[in-house]
Structures are given as C-alpha cells and as structure tokens.
C-alpha cells in the first residue's frame, strides 16, 4: 500500500510539472470565424455615419475587442452636424513605438456606382466589413507576448461619405451642399496620436473572392516589401502581387500627410465597389484568412 501511494504521489508531481511547463498552443487566425464578423455587420444592416446601424456596429466592435482582452477607447466628435465615433483597441501599451492597423466601419450612404440603384444605401460587406472582420480576429489571435511595439487596432468612422453632397448626408433647409471629404475619422486619429507611430497599415476591401492585392502607389515601399515578403513565405504569391497598380486616397492618406509611414492594403479590382451588390456572398473566408495571417506574422515579428 505504501508503494502504491508513493507511486501515485510521484506521478502527480510529474503530471503537475508537465502542466506547469507546457507551451501554450499558439492561436491561429481563423478566416471562417472572421467571416462571422462580416455576417454580424450585415445583420446590423446599413451603417452610414451617424445612423443607428453605424452606432450599433461601433458597439459590436467595442464588445468584441474588450472580450478579447484589449483596452478599448473611443474618440467622439462632431463633423458637419453628424456624430462621429472612432474605436481604438490597444495592446502592449508603452512597449515600443505605436503601430496602427486600421479599417473603416461605416458603409457608404449611397451606392453611386450602381447603374440600377445609385441612390440606394450600400451594404458594405467588403468595403468596410472585411477589414473590420480581420481586425476583430487579430484581436482574438495576436500573441501579445511577442509584441515589441504598442499595437492599435483602429476602427475608423466617417470614411465613406467622400464626394457626397452635404445636402444628401444631412438634408434640410439651408443645408450645405459642399461635398464631404474622405477619411474624416482617420484624419482625427492621425491628428491626435500622442507620438509619431512606427507605421500605419490600412486594410480596405481585402475580402474579395478573386483576391488580387497589388502595391498601392502612395504607400511606403519598404513596408510593402516586408509585408508582401511575408505573404510570399506563407504561399500567397498569387494573391499578393508586388507590383504597382492603384493610386488611392484612402484612410492611410492622413497619416502619410503627417510624415508617418503607411501602407494601403487594398484589392480595388472589385466590380461591386459602391454598388448594392457589395454583399456577404462576395466575401471569402479564405481571403480574410490570408490577410489576417500575413498581418499576424508581421506584427509579431516587428
């Protein structure tokens, strides 16, 4: 009986030691789970700036990032009579220079590229929804123990009213017809960041099933080489194409204007851009996963 007890005692010690020294299983970016965040945004409905849907989407983002353990803050202000709210989730605060990974969460008020319904609201599954989904899955899976920089996941409001008449955005007697600028929320973040960030990476329209992500011509070339190089090592050379194609004014622009290195990761070969056909069936979980895994490796290796 004594021998059995001693064996059991030492067995428990070995088991406890093994449990104490076991390496945690790395979290893997899951495109299927990110796709559920696209569906959640589509369930909320249209999300133009200042609308109930826009507010509900911001609330969803806040809940998801807090649940993932990130410190989540908001920036609230008014622009041309509309309430604007950026949501910023932070990790590894004070650990090093800030890296901002951003996406806009508002959807365009009118589908002005739609030949059949140019005044209808735009669903925004890819244009807005895909970038938000990747950021939320990054919040769940990023290994913060590997981070050497403070990371901000920035969810920008008020990107997609650009070039729309103010009398459409806020109709009424005496309305101001001056077209809205693009990237109102991103400009506010760029203006109020407390120190010069190490880099800013924008994820915009990256969920297309026919994924072709070229270099954007205004973006920082060295950062592009780093990120597309990681994509190549992960086997994504068909989708990440290290050649210049588009030149965009986007949410990275306010950062570039302030001398901050920035990259616009965008797949602009998207026939449903600013139409009523930008729906969840046009978004691929595999496309979300490729972008998310590239960004996860890059962020954890800086």
Topology:
Elements: H1 2-21, H2 31-44, H3 52-67, E1 71-79, E2 82-91, E3 98-104, H4 129-141, E4 150-156, H5 166-169, H6 184-192, E5 199-204, E6 213-216, H7 221-233, E7 240-246, H8 253-256, E8 262-266, H9 285-301
Helix pairs in contact: 2-4, 2-9, 4-9, 7-9
What does this structure look like?
By secondary structure, this protein is α/β, with parallel strands linked by helices. Helix content is 36%, strand content 18%. Strands 1-2-4-3-5-8 form a six-stranded mixed beta sheet, with helices on both faces. Helix 2 (31-44) crosses helix 4, helix 2 (31-44) packs across helix 9 and helix 7 (221-233) packs across helix 9 (285-301). The protein is globular.
User: How many β-strand stretches?
Assistant: 8
Major beta sheet, strand line-up: 1-2-4-3-5-8
Strand content: 15-25%
Helix content: 25-40%
SS content category: alpha/beta
Q: Globular, elongated, flat, extended or rod-shaped: what is the shape?
A: globular
Order of helical and strand elements: HHHEEEHEHHEEHEHEH
The main sheet comes to: 6 strands, mixed
Mean pLDDT: 93
Put simply, the count of helices is 9
Radius of gyration over C-alpha positions, nearest whole angstrom: 22 Å
Low-confidence stretches: 1-10
**Terminal residue distance:** 57 Å
């Amino acid at each position: 009986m004594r021998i059995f007890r001693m064996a059991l005692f030492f067995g428990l010690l070995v088991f406890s030691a093994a449990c104490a020294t076991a390496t945690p299983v790395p979290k893997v970016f899951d495109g299927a789970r990110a796709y559920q965040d696209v569906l959640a945004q589509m369930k909320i409905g249209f999300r133009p700036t200042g609308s109930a849907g826009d507010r509900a989407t911001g609330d969803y983002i806040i809940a998801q990032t807090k649940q993932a353990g990130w410190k989540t803050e908001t920036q609230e202000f008014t622009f041309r009579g509309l309430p604007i709210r950026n949501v910023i989730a932070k990790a590894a605060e004070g650990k090093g220079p800030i890296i901002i990974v951003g996406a806009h969460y508002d959807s365009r008020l009118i589908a002005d590229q739609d030949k059949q319904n140019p005044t209808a609201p735009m669903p925004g599954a890819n244009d807005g929804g895909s970038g938000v989904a990747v950021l939320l899955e990054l919040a769940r899976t990023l290994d913060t123990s590997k981070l050497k920089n403070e990371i901000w996941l920035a969810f920008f409001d008020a990107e997609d009213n650009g070039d729309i008449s103010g009398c459409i955005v806020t109709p009424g007697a005496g309305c101001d017809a001056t077209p809205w600028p693009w990237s109102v929320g991103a400009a506010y973040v760029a203006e109020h960041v407390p120190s010069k960030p190490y880099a800013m990476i924008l994820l915009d329209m990256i969920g297309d099933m026919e994924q072709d992500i070229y270099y954007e011509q205004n973006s920082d070339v060295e950062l592009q080489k780093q990120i597309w190089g990681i994509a190549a090592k992960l086997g994504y050379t068909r989708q990440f194409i290290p050649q210049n194609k588009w030149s965009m004014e986007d949410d990275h622009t306010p950062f570039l204007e302030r001398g901050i290195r920035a990259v616009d990761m965008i797949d602009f070969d998207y026939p449903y851009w600013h139409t009523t056909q930008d729906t969840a069936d046009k978004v691929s979980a595999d496309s979300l996963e490729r972008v998310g895994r590239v960004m996860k490796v890059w962020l954890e290796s800086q």
